[in-house]
User: Which sequence fits this backbone?
């Protein structure tokens, strides 16, 4: 199984970014996927989860600002991040089928 994230970058506070995660080598369509993040000096935390049927859960800190979605035809899960804040700065990791991606850096300038 391979998990590859993309889409990170530098954005001003209030801006938006969309992260993508391509999962290959397993039964992506039958499994959940999740986005986590880790800020410097902090533990990795769960940001959002999407189950195979499409139901979602979010951390309180991102509810109403972030949207997780999936395209099973493309084996891809997305994280749309709006109204970004400086405290959203972190490395964002995708997790699916027991495998972590390498992470993508998101930096929000205030």
Assistant:
């Amino acid at each position: 199984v391979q998990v590859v994230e993309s889409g990170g970058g530098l954005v001003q506070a209030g801006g938006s970014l969309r992260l993508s995660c391509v999962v290959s080598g397993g039964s992506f369509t039958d499994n959940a996927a999740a986005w986590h993040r880790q800020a410097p000096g902090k533990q990795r935390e769960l940001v959002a989860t999407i189950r195979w049927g499409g139901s979602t859960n979010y951390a309180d800190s991102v509810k109403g600002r972030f949207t997780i979605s999936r395209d099973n035809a493309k084996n891809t899960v997305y994280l749309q991040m709006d109204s970004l804040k400086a405290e959203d700065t972190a490395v964002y990791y995708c997790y699916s089928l027991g495998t972590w991606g390498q992470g993508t850096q998101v930096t929000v300038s205030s």
In short: The chain has a mean pLDDT of 97. The longest strand covers residues 17-24.
